Amino acid sequence: MRIVKLSPQSLAFPSPEGALRDPNGLLAIGGDLTPSRLLAAYERGIFPWYSPGEAILWWSPDPRAVMFPAEHHVSRSLKRFLRANPFRITLNQDFAAVIAACAYRPDEGTWIGPEVQQAYLQLHQQGHAHSVEVWQEDKLVGGLYGVAQGALFCGESMFSRTTNASKCALMAFCRHFAAYGGELVDCQVLNAHTASLGAKEIPRRQFLQLLSHLQRRVLAPECWQSQVIPPHPVEPPSPTN
């Protein structure tokens, strides 16, 4: 197994099965972040991740962290929190602000540099990348963004500036996505935070099989229209005697 250097004249990627085991999933180096190359990568279960100023690295880890939206569990404490209705949650109303907020990590550093932000903003303008925004009054306090592949959503990053904001963004998105036929959210690599939100690991081969099946599904255009997403399910009124 070796890292493949991408050709600037071709959008071809090597098979994910050839990715390194250490570091887990490293597959290729080079290329660019044009919309066509990014889409070619996501269509094959590959994503970019690298430090600003360095060569672009392309990954397809094994195992893969995923979340099944229909199975997303909301804890009792979060349900109680939501009853207070502290947030307004929207879809595709300020993608640029969301990705900029995801990039702002002064204590950790970030891979989401200006080049990356511009690349995904182009994907958003073309209808491939989407954002969820969490508002407290008129202030953006949380959100997430990623790339759609039919009935699969490739989550890229999320942020939170107040308690439970990112959890509420993900919960509301999972419910909305599932309602339109979405079946899988790609979380890429499992960590303590994604695990606490319900992500689990599956073999890369299984993920690629699901990707091949789900990316052919076409969701209704209304799924991705700019809109308000209810922060919690609308419950029917209690029956009266």
Automatic annotation (TrEMBL):
List UniProt keywords, sorted A-Z: Acyltransferase, Cytoplasm, Transferase
Q: Which domain of life is it from?
A: Bacteria
In the record, biological process GO terms are: protein catabolic process
- Has UniProt tagged this entry with the keyword Heme? no
Q: Which GO terms describe its cellular component?
A: cytoplasm
Q: Which reaction does it catalyse?
A: N-terminal L-arginyl-[protein] + L-leucyl-tRNA(Leu) = N-terminal L-leucyl-L-arginyl-[protein] + tRNA(Leu) + H(+); L-phenylalanyl-tRNA(Phe) + an N-terminal L-alpha-aminoacyl-[protein] = an N-terminal L-phenylalanyl-L-alpha-aminoacyl-[protein] + tRNA(Phe); N-terminal L-lysyl-[protein] + L-leucyl-tRNA(Leu) = N-terminal L-leucyl-L-lysyl-[protein] + tRNA(Leu) + H(+)
Q: What are the recorded GO MF terms, alphabetically?
A: leucyl-tRNA--protein transferase activity
Please state the Enzyme Commission number of this protein: 2.3.2.6
Question: Where does it mainly reside?
Answer: cytoplasm
The answer to whether the entry has keyword Acyltransferase is yes
Identify the Gene3D superfamilies for this entry.
Leucyl/phenylalanyl-tRNA-protein transferase, C-terminal domain, Leucyl/phenylalanyl-tRNA-protein transferase, N-terminal domain
Q: Which SUPFAM superfamilies match?
A: Acyl-CoA N-acyltransferases (Nat)
Locations listed in the record: Cytoplasm
Q: Which family does it belong to?
A: Belongs to the L/F-transferase family.
NCBIfam families, per database record: aat
Role played: Functions in the N-end rule pathway of protein degradation where it conjugates Leu, Phe and, less efficiently, Met from aminoacyl-tRNAs to the N-termini of proteins containing an N-terminal arginine or lysine.
The name under which this protein is listed is Leucyl/phenylalanyl-tRNA--protein transferase
Which organism was this protein described from?
Serratia oryzae
